[in-house]
Amino acid sequence: MKKGTVVLAFSGGLDTSVCIPLLRERYGYERVVTVAVDVGQPESDIRSATEKGRRFADAHYTIDAKERFVEEYVFPSIQANGSYEGYPLGTALARPLIAEETVAIARANEAKAVAHGCTGKGNDQLRFDFIIRSAGLEVVAPIRELNLTRTWEIEYARKHKIPVTVAKKNPYSVDENCWNRSIEGGRLEDPSFHPPESIYRWTVRPEKAPDTPEELTVCFEAGIPVALDGERMKGIDLVQEMNLRAGRNGVGRNDMIEDRILGLKAREIYEHPAATALITAHADLEHLVLTRNELAFKRGVDDRWSELAYQGLVHEPLFAALNAFIKKTQERVNGTVDLVLYRGSVRVAGRSSPDALYSGDMVSFDSMSLDQGHAEGVSRFHGIQAQMLKKMKER
User: Fold this and answer.
1) Hey, what CATH topology would domain 177-352 get?
2) Which residues make beta-bridge pairs with 177?
3) Fewer C-beta within 10 Å: the chain N or C terminus?
4) Helix, strand, coil proportions of the chain in percent (round to 5)?
């Protein structure tokens, strides 16, 4: 029985490309609408996705969501020092936005189903499914439901004369947005395999980076970066400029074994130069302006926030509550941080803030503003219970 319209979240890659004919042949949809959401992919990728969508689908939409992505997803991640198992969140941040934009097109086209090209082994299926089902729409996942392999998809695309960049000799799967670039698949699935330098695009090999350190200053307002070296910039422009500057100094590579939501361990390679530098600067500034209690509590909040973001659970009530706490702490995260980029490393050289909880006069060893003798009273009670217990044991 023929079905109506299905809307497909479309990247133009192998998985989503083969979904177009599959949705017609295997699922019986009369009309396939593709949606490409630009969150900072290369212009060539967006252009290719647009051309493919218009050529092979019944209708196509390309949506520019770069600024929304940075302002509504990247900036909150900076405020939360968003990271998962040691790397800055990237791909996970973009998925809910892409799914939401696709859902909006589905509603505009009176479609009851939204399709995606996610496999049944990764994280993205759960991130997309959560948003789609939260909107009350049916989920269609051909790659997962038909249990397809990458080799089968390449042959299927060839038979349908669909051009794809992935081939048996170049099987890497790359996902990119303005905040993160991930590379997986092919021989990279072997954890012992040394990746070729050719897979990297944003970062130079640290050994090949300039031998002169590059210094820059990041200005923050309410925990959000607003300027580089005194020049105020739009969010997307600032991120792209930082990607360029940190990347040319070899900053922002991760080659790691990651625990996916399903529990599978996977070898993942990431490039995230701007994320590495900006989160380093932000976390340092927080230590200057937040109290010890705030910092201690926020570490747990940041970890929980990152876990929910990684899972794509952006409509989870706890996620909203954590965001409220984080936003409150960021009211005082204002100031500048001086960074030094050098051959794969980023370090803080200095920081300043009008909201600093720091007194050079009080902390200085040469200052008389505090009477050191007053500390003796605190010292007498410091660890008093442990002192008592030790004496009891000695008796």
Assistant:
1) Argininosuccinate synthetase, chain A, domain 2 (3.90.1260)
2) 180
3) N
4) 45, 25, 30
| 10/241 Cα distance (integer angstroms) | 27
Written as six digits, the tokens of 182 are 């991930």
Q: What stretch of H or E contains 280?
A: helix 273-289
The reply to whether domains 3-170 and 177-352 share a CATH topology is no
Q: Please state whether the predicted TM-score (pTM) of the whole model is above 0.90.
A: yes
Burial class (CB in 10 A: 0-12, 13-18, 19+), 101: buried
Question: DSSP string covering 290-353, please?
Answer: S-HHHHHHHHHHHHHHHHHHHHT-TT-HHHHHHHHHHHHHGGG--EEEEEEEETTEEEEEEEE-
102 near 35, Cβ under 8 Å?
Answer: yes
Could you give the residue numbers annotated as active site? Answer: 15, 95, 124, 173
> How far apart are alpha carbons 262 and 180 in whole angstroms?
22
Is residue 166 scored above 90 in pLDDT?
A: no
For 244-299, write each residue's pLDDT tens digit.
Answer: 999 999 999 999 999 999 999 999 999 999 999 999 999 999 999 999 999 999 99
**CATH fold group of domain 3-170:** Rossmann fold (3.40.50)
What are the sequence ranges of the domains in the chain? 3-170, 177-352
User: How far, in Å, CA of 333 to CA of 264, rounded?
Assistant: 37
Closest among 348, 338, 330 to 230, alpha carbons compared? 338
Band of the pLDDT at 169, cuts 50, 70, 90?
Answer: low
Cα–Cα distances in Å, from 193 out to 188, 250, 256, 259?
6, 21, 12, 19
What is the C-alpha to C-alpha distance for residues 194 and 200, in angstroms, rounded to an integer?
13
Element (H, E) at 5: strand 3-9
113: left (phi over 0), alpha (psi -120 to 50) or beta: beta
| pLDDT tier, 210 (very low <50, low <70, confident <90, very high otherwise) | very high
- For residues 332 and 353, give the distance between their C-alpha atoms in angstroms, rounded to a whole number: 9
- 266 phi/psi in degrees, rounded to 5: -140, 150
